Amino acid sequence: MLYEERRFSKLMLFLAVPGFVGLFGGLWGTYTAGEGFEIMVVISTIVILILIDLLMFKIEIDEREIRLRGTLGIIIRKTIKIEDIESFEVKEGWIGCWAPIRFNFPAEGCITIHKRGLDVAFTTRNPEEIAMILTTLGVPREA
Q1: Which of 20, 107, 125, 138 has the fewest CB atoms within 10 Å, i.e. the most exposed one?
Q2: Among 120, 91, 87, residue whose Cα is nearest residue 108
Q3: Pairing label, strands 65-70, 56-61
Q4: What integer pLDDT is reported at residue 136 of this predicted model?
Q5: Where are the beta strands (DSSP E) in 23-108?
Q6: Is the separation of the CB atoms in 103 and 58 below 8 Å?
């Protein structure tokens, strides 16, 4: 493993709290009513897994690929092979990059990966360290 970074978003946690409260309220309501509790448990479990997946983001880079994952990897999940990368660019700030596929948490910088197919952008605390690793792996950097 050449690089690994875990990001946790307090903003996403703040936005997810009403969802958790609503789900538990719905569970309590269906339980006390005695109807639809089983269905509500299934739906609540699925929604809770999705919300947990959105709370944390992990970047892993090795010699073969870049892996972008959420907590559980259910929704947030993208693997980019190094050989498919045409170039990359680094920008300061977490809103400076744009791509059709974007993994965005508040951070110091962002990286856009230009590859065959759809480009991918993600934010990181250490954009220059990732740029150095990608350059070492032979990926050209855009100016």
Answers
A1: 138
A2: 91
A3: antiparallel
A4: 96
A5: 56-61, 65-70, 77-81, 85-92, 101-103
A6: no
pLDDT, tens digit, for every residue of 124-143?
Answer: 999 999 999 999 999 999 86
Q: Is the dihedral of CA 132, 61, 10, 114 positive or negative?
A: positive
pLDDT tens per residue, range 4-32: 999 887 887 888 888 889 899 999 999 99
As a whole number of angstroms, the distance between CA 55 and CA 14 comes to 10
Query: Closest Cα to residue 66, out of 83, 79, 76?
Result: 79
Looking only at the bridges linking them, the beta strands covering 101-103 and 120-124 are parallel
Give the residue, 83 or 52, on which the prediction is more confident: 83
Q: Based on the number of CB atoms within 10 Å of its own CB, is 9 exposed (0-12), middle (13-18) or buried (19 or more)?
A: middle
76: helix, coil or strand? coil
- Please tell me the pTM assigned to this model: 0.82
